[in-house]
Design goal:
It is a single chain. By secondary structure, the protein is an alpha+beta fold. It has 6 helices and 12 strands. It has a 7-stranded mixed β-sheet with strand order 1-2-3-7-6-5-4, sandwiched between helices. A 5-stranded antiparallel β-sheet has the order 11-10-9-8-12, with no helix packed on it. A hairpin with a 5-residue loop joins strand 10 and strand 11. Helix 3 crosses helix 5 and helix 3 crosses helix 6. It is globular and about 60 Å long. It binds biotin. Biotin binds next to helix 2, strand 3, strand 6 and strand 7.
């Protein structure tokens, strides 16, 4: 089924806005949240012209080639750190159900297939003074993005490359949202944490986190990574850029 307003109207039972082309679904979702969107509302696009990734990076969403969606959520603020977990785990499960191939998580929320990144998550909290107005949870999945000839060709992958066949984006979105809703309804549960941790490929690896090098020994219930340095000291790290492997002079 081609991704379109009418296909999504048949498949989804939540408020949604579909765009053929948009700057960033996260930005549209933030505006909709300010305009009174309900918890669970969804923004979805066939193409993004200014898709945003983590750490200020660009996220490519060429037309007809990916899932680019943003969920508008109103969780208790204590659960904000778990939105990442919920999204990355749901993407993994969707891939294992629909493609189907094995999928894992590179801390904190990159979804990895065959050693390459297939999906990323961009959560953004919106505050009014010290009140949480809501959160926008952006999810991007490469379905048939062509990375040949791009700087990402060694590190990124599309689901159709792994599947070796054509995939239906409406089917993928439906499965992803079904998994997401099931986990979101138990966002505070130990089961969510355990399922997320069981997909995490980063544990017991040598990692470099900015200036810190060590072994990833565990994760906290909020999703922070614990790194043991060469002196045996344990450091807790939140969001940031993690490199799996030892640091090299040229990195
Ligand atoms: C990452 O850097 O890994 C996060 C990528 C998140 C991309 C998604 S695509 C839908 C949503 N809209 C955006 O502009 N970004 C997120």
């Amino acid at each position: 089924m081609t991704l379109s307003q009418s296909a999504l109207s048949q498949a989804l039972s939540r408020p949604f806005k579909y765009f053929d082309r948009v700057d960033s679904t996260n930005d549209v979702a933030k505006a909709w949240l300010a305009d009174g969107a309900l918890d669970g509302a969804l923004v979805i696009a066939n193409e993004q012209t200014r898709g945003r990734g983590r750490l200020g990076r660009e996220w490519r969403t060429p037309p007809d080639s990916a899932l680019a969606l943003s969920l508008i959520l109103k969780p208790d603020k204590s659960y904000l750190p778990r939105l990442n977990m919920t999204a990355a785990l749901s993407v993994c499960e969707m891939i294992m159900e629909c493609v189907p191939v094995d999928a894992g998580i590179k801390w904190p929320n990159d979804v990895i297939v065959q050693g390459r990144k297939v999906s990323g998550v961009l959560p953004e909290a919106i505050w009014e003074a010290d009140q949480l107005a809501g959160a926008v949870l952006g999810i991007g999945v490469n379905v048939r993005v062509d990375f040949s000839g791009s700087a990402l060709r060694e590190s990124a992958i599309s689901l159709e490359q792994a599947a070796g066949r054509r995939l239906d984006r409406v089917v993928l979105i439906t499965a992803l949202l079904r998994r997401f809703d099931a986990w979101y309804s138990q966002i505070g549960s130990p089961a969510l944490f355990d399922a997320w941790r069981s997909r995490l490929g980063t544990l017991n690896e040598v990692v470099t986190f900015h200036d810190l090098e060590g072994v990833a020994t565990g994760v906290t219930a909020e999703g922070a990574l614990l790194i043991r340095d060469a002196n045996g000291r344990i450091h807790k790290r939140g969001a940031g850029e993690l490199v799996v492997g030892a640091r090299h002079e040229d990195r």
